[in-house]
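A reminder from the course coordinator: this example appears on the midterm review sheet, so study it carefully.

Given structure:
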């Protein structure tokens, strides 16, 4: 019986009610038809307040570009700083350059940035123009017909007519469909990437219409929620003129950007337009994140500012001291307008400001622009890497966040989803259990082991093309010679649509059927079960309304119900090769079709099933209900998830074939070839809260109202009716639970199948409540959830299924390589613990020798004690191993734990469930949890929710201060992806929501290996060394001006021409760092892949950290001293001019800086040589031309003919040779010494790259052999007597429950973990925690698979707390995958 719903509470006081009503009104979004307002002022139209459909993604207009772009650029601190310096230079008392000259550098930088922004905005403008000018048909009252208009002219309240294969221009409420059942089929690939079709239904009350929809008769008011970005939720109601209401939801909403398929004509009214559509609200564009290098760089810029102020302070003090040496006023001092001379202190302050202007280039003005250009170049090469291209999907890597490429080389933690990320998300039916009887499907298992899935798209499509109905060709429009379209249908009781094999990707606008590969469709049935199915199907014909057999006690009827549930409890659409169906009127008939059948003589007559007529003499006979009518075509199934497709294919393998689905009926072909059509009363879709799906149907034979439910076993088992009074059902439930545990340990995804029979009164009562919930606007979601939960109770268990999610190619190798690279890998999944652990062993996340701590508890005190116990044990392991294990007197790497992720012990793993995570977060146990995980090389979080996933990522990222990466493929991974430093989405079979929220998108998990180990390392090392070089370059050059101040009375003058100084940074030395940052390769890709440990250099920030910055600063100061004082000592006591003295210094500095860049380059190509030589030659060409034409450019001292005279002086050539050598000699000596004596892996790898290929391969092999020997030495048992930790599992129940477990048999899944994986160690070893008694180890050979009738986990056998018995659990780990065998032991804590 269904529980009564609680009555609504009476409203409160009048004032409170009015305020509440007003708030509700503000949340409403009211839409009416525009037709009554045509020809009238726009102000009278209530829809006028809503946005038009024209979209505008550009940031600027012609008028706003200049002020807006300048305003945005000034938000960057560096630009604001340099503008302020340029403005300061306009004050005569402090100017160091000519005012106009001081503006040139910042103007050039801002112009380059503005041009880049303008180009990007122009591309957006062109894209918007194309979209806004697409055509659609809008109803016009004056023309009495639909007229063609542009998308930008569509308004809220317009009636839009769309045809097959047209793209939807706005969010439209569906009011009419040419499909007789009122269904419209959508392809949402443009929105979420899913290739399967979705069904949308006409709003209730508009289904039974004539062949044409009349917009002028529409007088209703639409009330719905305000625009939001939730693609899956939409609610509202339609208020009719008689004040009655009809509710609707997302099933009636056509979203902008989707494509009409399988439907000839649809009509709807525009609800949201333009930027208020859900597609546009989700279009956030590329994300902006600040990289780790950028954060480090900002700190170093503040250090540079400090150095600048210190140097300016020295200049101000020096100027004051120098002025103080004069007994009177210096002759060069100029009084102000009043004839007064400023004081020495004030002059010192003015000189401080002058020095800031003079030394401003100490802050690298062009660094930010150079970094942006370098990152664009890195993204270009990343995108064009052929190894990151997936031929099957024709997709390469997508870079959505353009400014964090270097962070790919510094990742320390990876958080991964399991399903669709580590696995293929291709669900293959493997096993099932029905009424406690397990069917192993050995033939199907052999097929999956031996079959090599071929990429035979042609073959698959050929299968879909056969079996078309020849007579349906007469239904085509006259003169229609168009090729078959992807999603078209004709309806002659069946529902299906065209699948046309695309001849090339260029002219293919749609994807193949989702979840329909050969390996997923072809299921080999179990012969024993197949025989039982045939017998049960024959008995089905004997059912009548007066002879109903209770399925709970009849195996045959339960088998029939089981496969009927697999076939109809889903949202799968049926498709085949037919033409599009037309809108036709069918007269009510129980024995056949009218005009459509007669229009096609060759079309077989199709029998319809029972109509809703009173039971009695007028009821059709059994022959009218069950009749073999047509040969079966080859159906294609459009499923929203791979699980649904796998179950439908499994049902079809047993000849329970899903033939047709409409909003009102679903038809199944039975094994005898007969058709059985159910009236589809309600469908309760799957959601992440309920974790189940239900359909309510009326059985055509018994007229019973039946609820078929499928869902997660952890949920369904709690919804079953109480079996206390039924011993047989209790046994069936216990056996089914054993089979579920078996499946889960074998790595299979499990689903339970159940049913429930309703009487008419209960159903009508529930249907009324459901109708009220659907018509509600404020709390519709809560009411719908409540009605579903009231219905799905007291279920009868039918059986369960085991579906295999196959591991992706290359996942184990990728995980192994990332592990060697020092990356800790966590898997956060919502799957069952046993399933996740099995997959973890398959992909080498957990190894056979690992110590695995499994923590499941719901008590805060227990959780805290477990964490303390585990931490104490791990620390004892470290303490004892430190004193015992050395390799030639050197401590092994595995014995040096630290507070960072490098402390991870290679032999420890942690498995934890969602409930325990809740306890950790709520009980302030995060610190202990993180401390334990730092010793673990892998962590597996099972049964975790999307919120828990993001919380775990944020906890590790913020508390451990590490670089994190999250990777997933589904909508449930979005929060985790957004929480990490780098989010990676996989373009899988779960749509594109993860991709749209990510920073990078790949198609396979294996691509992560090269993305991080190669491109990540390159991007980080290039950019890090380029940033350090920029700091060095600017400090080295600006110090030349600083040293000169000691010889010019700190007057703020320079010995280098202003234009030469400007050209120096903007042109002469700007190109080599760009080429270096984009093209340099310190180590080859082959070596980086072969030696993953080289990735650790990025994790440790080897190339750019505090020490490298200050070393570069000291080197810059030293080189500037050499470059200044050697020419100074050379020209001392001579009578040369200022610019004649400064030109050699400028030239020497340029040569030194370029040679320094050459020493940093690890790769030498034609481009590298050309850029360096071109920069050097450009300097001389510009200097010669400038000095030749500049006669009075800088009066009174002008650089006329200075360079020409220098080139004729031998001293100039000698200085240009000796000085750079002296300046770079210490650095060269250091690099040579480092290369000779250094033991850095990076240096060793660079040496390997210089060897011939054969010698290089041998050297790499020897490197890996040495590493394996060290690793083997690390694996020596950490305790005396060679005792080792095994599996510590703490079940989540109390001590009293443990005592009771030996007396009372329980089928609860929580208590089934008692006899599994507790603690394995020698008796002589120290006790890990209270309650430990002894040791009992099983051999791997004892884990043979039991027979279907055997108890899968074995008896509990726990006599008392602290005691344990032999754990002959019959582990299913010894499956066909031998790698899953692992020794197990038992201990009760």
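Designed residues:
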């Amino acid at each position: 019986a269904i529980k009564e719903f609680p009555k609504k509470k009476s409203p409160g006081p009048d004032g409170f009610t009015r305020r509440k009503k007003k708030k509700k009104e503000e949340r409403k979004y009211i839409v009416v038809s525009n037709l009554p307002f045509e020809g009238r002022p726009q102000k009278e139209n209530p829809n006028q307040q809503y946005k038009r459909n024209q979209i505008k993604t550009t940031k600027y207009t012609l008028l706003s570009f200049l002020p807006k772009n300048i305003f945005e650029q000034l938000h960057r601190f560096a630009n604001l700083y340099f503008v302020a310096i340029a403005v300061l230079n306009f004050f005569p008392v402090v100017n160091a350059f000519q005012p106009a000259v001081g503006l040139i550098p910042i103007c050039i930088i801002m112009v380059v940035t503005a041009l880049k922004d303008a180009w990007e905005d122009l591309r957006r403008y062109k894209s918007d123009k194309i979209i806004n000018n697409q055509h659609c048909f809008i109803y016009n009252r004056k023309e009495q017909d639909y007229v063609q208009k542009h998308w930008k002219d569509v308004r809220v309240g317009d009636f839009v007519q769309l045809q097959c294969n047209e793209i939807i221009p706005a969010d439209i409420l569906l009011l009419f469909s040419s499909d007789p059942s009122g269904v419209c089929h959508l392809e949402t690939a443009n929105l979420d990437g899913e290739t399967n079709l979705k069904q949308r239904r006409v709003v209730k009350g508009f289904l039974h219409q004539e062949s044409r929809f009349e917009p002028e008769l529409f007088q209703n008011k639409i009330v719905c929620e305000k625009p939001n970005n939730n693609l899956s939720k939409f609610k509202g109601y339609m208020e009719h003129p008689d004040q009655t209401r009809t509710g609707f939801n997302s099933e009636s909403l056509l979203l902008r950007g989707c494509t009409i398929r399988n439907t000839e004509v649809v009509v709807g009214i525009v609800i949201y337009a333009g930027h208020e559509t859900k597609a546009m609200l989700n279009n956030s564009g590329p994300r902006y994140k600040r990289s780790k290098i950028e954060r480090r760089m900002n700190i170093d810029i503040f250090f540079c500012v400090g150095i600048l102020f210190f140097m300016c302070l020295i200049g101000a003090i020096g100027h004051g001291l120098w002025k103080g040496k004069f007994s009177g006023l210096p002759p060069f001092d100029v009084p102000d307008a009043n004839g007064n001379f400023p004081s020495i202190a004030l002059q010192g302050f003015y000189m401080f400001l002058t020095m800031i202007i003079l030394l401003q280039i100490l802050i690298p003005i062009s660094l930010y622009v150079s970094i942006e250009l370098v990152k664009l170049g890195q993204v270009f090469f990343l995108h064009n890497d052929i190894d990151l291209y997936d031929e099957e999907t024709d997709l390469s890597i997508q870079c959505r966040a353009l400014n964090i490429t270097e962070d790919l080389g510094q990742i320390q933690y990876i958080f991964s989803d399991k399903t669709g990320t580590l696995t293929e998300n291709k669900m293959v039916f493997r096993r099932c259990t029905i009424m406690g009887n397990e069917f192993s499907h050995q033939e199907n298992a052999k097929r999956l082991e031996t079959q090599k899935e071929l990429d035979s798209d042609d073959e698959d499509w050929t299968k879909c093309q056969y079996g078309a109905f020849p007579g349906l060709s007469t239904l085509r429009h006259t003169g229609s010679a168009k090729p078959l379209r992807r999603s078209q249908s004709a309806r002659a009781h069946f529902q299906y649509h065209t699948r046309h094999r695309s001849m090339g990707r260029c002219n293919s606008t749609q994807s193949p059927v989702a979840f329909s590969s050969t390996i997923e469709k072809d299921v080999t049935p179990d012969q024993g079960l197949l025989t039982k199915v045939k017998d049960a199907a024959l008995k089905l014909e004997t059912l009548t309304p007066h002879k109903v057999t209770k399925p709970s006690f009849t195996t045959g009827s339960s088998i029939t119900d089981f496969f009927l549930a697999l076939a109809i409890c889903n949202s799968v659409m049926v498709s085949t090769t037919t033409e599009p169906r037309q809108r036709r009127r069918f007269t009510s008939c129980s024995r056949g079709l009218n005009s459509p059948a007669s229009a096609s003589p060759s079309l077989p007559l199709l029998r319809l099933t029972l109509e809703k007529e009173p039971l009695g003499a007028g009821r059709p006979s059994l022959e009218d209900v069950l009749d073999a009518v047509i040969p079966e075509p080859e159906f294609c199934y459009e499923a929203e998830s791979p699980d649904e497709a796998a179950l439908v294919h499994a049902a079809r393998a047993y000849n329970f074939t899903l033939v047709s689905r409409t909003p009102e009926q679903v038809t199944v072909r039975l094994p005898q070839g007969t058709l059985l059509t159910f009236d589809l009363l309600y469908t309760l879709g799957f959601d992440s809260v309920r974790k189940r799906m239900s359909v309510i149907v009326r059985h055509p034979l018994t007229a019973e109202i039946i609820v078929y439910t499928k869902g997660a076993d952890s949920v369904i088992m709690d919804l079953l009716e109480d079996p206390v009074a039924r011993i047989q059902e209790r046994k069936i439930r216990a056996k089914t639970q054993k089979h579920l545990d078996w499946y889960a340990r074998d790595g299979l995804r499990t689903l339970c199948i159940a049913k429930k029979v309703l009487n008419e009164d209960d159903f009508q009562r529930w249907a009324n409540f459901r109708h009220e919930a659907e018509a509600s606007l404020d709390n519709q979601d809560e009411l719908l959830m409540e009605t579903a939960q009231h219905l799905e109770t007291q279920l009868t268990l039918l059986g369960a299924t085991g579906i295999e999610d196959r591991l992706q190619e290359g996942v184990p190798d990728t995980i192994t390589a990332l592990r060697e690279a020092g990356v800790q890998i966590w898997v956060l999944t919502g799957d069952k613990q046993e399933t996740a652990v099995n997959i973890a062993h398959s992909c080498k996340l957990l190894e056979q020798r690992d110590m695995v701590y499994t923590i499941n508890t719901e008590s805060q005190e227990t959780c805290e004690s477990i964490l303390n116990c585990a931490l104490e044990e791990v620390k004892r392991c470290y303490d004892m191993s430190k004193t015992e294990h050395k390799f030639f007197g050197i401590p092994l790497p595995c014995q040096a734990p630290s507070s960072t992720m490098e402390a991870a012990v290679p032999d420890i793993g942690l498995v934890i469930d969602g409930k325990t995570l809740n306890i950790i977060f709520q009980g302030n146990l995060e610190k202990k949890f993180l401390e334990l995980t730092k010793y673990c090389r892998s962590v597996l979080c099972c049964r975790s929710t999307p919120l828990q996933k993001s919380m775990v990522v944020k906890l590790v990222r913020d508390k451990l201060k590490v670089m994190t990466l999250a990777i997933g493929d589904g909508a449930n991974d979005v929060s985790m992806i957004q929480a990490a430093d780098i989010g990676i989405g996989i373009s899988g079979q779960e749509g594109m929501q993860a991709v749209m929220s990510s920073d990078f998108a790949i198609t396979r998990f294996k691509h992560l290996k090269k993305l991080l180990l190669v491109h990540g390392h390159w991007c980080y090392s290039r950019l890090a060394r380029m940033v350090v070089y920029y700091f060095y370059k600017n400090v080295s050059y600006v110090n030349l001006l600083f040293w000169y101040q000691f010889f010019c009375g700190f007057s703020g003058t320079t010995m280098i021409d202003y234009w030469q100084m400007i050209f120096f940074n903007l042109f002469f030395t700007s190109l080599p760092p760009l080429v270096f940052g984009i093209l340099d390769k310190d180590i080859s890709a082959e070596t980086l892949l072969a030696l993953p440990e080289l990735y650790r250099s990025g994790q440790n920030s080897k190339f750019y950290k505090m020490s490298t910055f200050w070393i570069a600063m000291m080197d810059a100061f030293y080189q500037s001293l050499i470059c200044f004082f050697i020419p100074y000592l050379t020209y001392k006591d001579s009578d040369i001019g200022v610019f004649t003295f400064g030109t050699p210094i400028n030239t020497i500095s340029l040569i030194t800086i370029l040679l320094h860049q050459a020493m940093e380059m690890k790769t030498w190509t034609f481009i590298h040589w050309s850029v360096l030589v071109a920069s050097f030659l450009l300097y001389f060409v510009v200097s010669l031309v400038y000095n030749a034409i500049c006669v009075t450019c800088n009066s009174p001292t002008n650089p006329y003919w200075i360079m020409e005279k220098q080139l004729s002086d031998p001293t100039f050539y000698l200085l240009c040779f000796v000085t750079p050598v002296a300046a770079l000699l210490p650095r060269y000596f250091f690099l040579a010494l480092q290369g000779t004596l250094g033991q850095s892996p990076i240096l060793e790898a660079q040496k390997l790259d210089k060897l011939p290929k054969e010698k290089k391969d041998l050297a790499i092999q020897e490197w890996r052999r040495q590493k394996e020997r060290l690793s083997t030495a690390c694996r020596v048992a950490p305790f005396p007597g060679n005792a080792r930790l095994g599996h510590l599992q703490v079940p989540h129940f109390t001590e009293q429950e443990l005592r009771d477990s030996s007396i009372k048999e329980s089928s609860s899944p929580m208590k089934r973990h008692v006899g599994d994986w507790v603690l394995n160690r020698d008796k002589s070893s120290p006790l890990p925690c209270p309650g430990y008694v002894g040791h009992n180890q099983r051999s791997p050979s004892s884990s043979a698979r039991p027979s279907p009738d055997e108890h899968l986990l074995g008896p509990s056998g726990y006599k008392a707390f602290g005691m344990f018995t032999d754990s002959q659990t019959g582990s299913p780990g010894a499956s066909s995958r031998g790698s899953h065998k692992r020794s197990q032991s038992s201990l009760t804590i």
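Residues 411 and 963 are 5 Å apart (CA to CA). The radius of gyration is 38 Å.
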